[in-house]
Amino acid sequence: MNGKRLYRSESSRMLCGVCAGIAEYFNLDPTLIRLAWALFCILGGSGVLAYILAAIIIPPESRV
What we know:
Blueprint: H1 18-25, H2 30-43, H3 47-57
Helix pairs in contact: 1-2
Transmembrane segments: 34-58
Membrane topology: Single-pass membrane protein
Protein name: PspC domain-containing protein
């Protein structure tokens, strides 16, 4: 196990910190993840539900 954990960011969050946490996990810019998520919401429609589920399932940074 590499020791990396996925969590919701509390330092660079916009809503719940899901996109920023995913960006930190993959070492990417959070803006790229937010743009991809927005496109997913617009084109697929299920992005909102996926974000809500991710916000519930992924633990916050302070718990890790």
